[in-house]
Structure prediction request, 268 residues.
Amino acid sequence: TSWKITAFISKMGGFVKQTLSEPEALFYARLDDLFDTAERRCIPKFTSFLDESQQFLAERYLERTKRSGWMLWGGYEGAVRRMLGAFPDYMEPSLEQFPIAPFTASYRKADVLTHRDFLGSLMALGIKREAVGDILPAEGSCLFFTTDRIQALVLGEVEKIGRTGVRLEPGVHMALPEGAKFQEISGTVASLRLDCVVALLTGKSRERAGELIQGGLVAKNYQLCDSNSAAVKPGDILSVRGFGKARLAEEVRMTKKDRCFITLMKYV
Prediction:
């Protein structure tokens, strides 16, 4: 593994060595292999399902390496867990190429099944978490996504979720959820320091925002951040435990009093 990291550091001009932890460097090296293999073998290559933190790292990798011919997709518009597809130069990225298998489970409306119920039953089959995408339970039905490699296993083995019998069909046979919705939170802050922006997001004082940060309750771009003075940039995503998640909009205006007028797009 170590030689891959070394080669990747050399290719990135020291970027990985300077700014990434070893797990992040390994993840970046795997992405480098993914794109190199797609070009060398002239076939599309795909990651497993990535969580939001991994997607952020992937997008940073794509920005720094100026890769082209890629796409993130999770089986439907607005998916949280998505695969990254690397496509060779001659091929236009296509949703149809992604190795994603959707399933619709039907059961009695009187039975209440949760995300945890479905995930637990899939894990009990020995399926790894990265092979499972979004799980969308509704009244009497649930739509979920896996890699197509385990499609036969899921269809052949899943007859119950917990103690509840389910009827499983391949494909999408229920309404897809709408994309993410946002609540705009606008206001002025003294600067784009983390404590200032968190104070606006939470509606708390700057002092209280600092306590949340120091208490390990704040993440910036899905990484815990305990520095009150950490810089926040447009496009950054902040998560505050107990208060939700928001993205800083691109437009930042300076007021006549040299304060920053910003808008946070809070996920609802």
Remarks:
- The first strand starts at residue 45 and ends at 46.
- Confidence is low (pLDDT under 50) at residues 13-18.
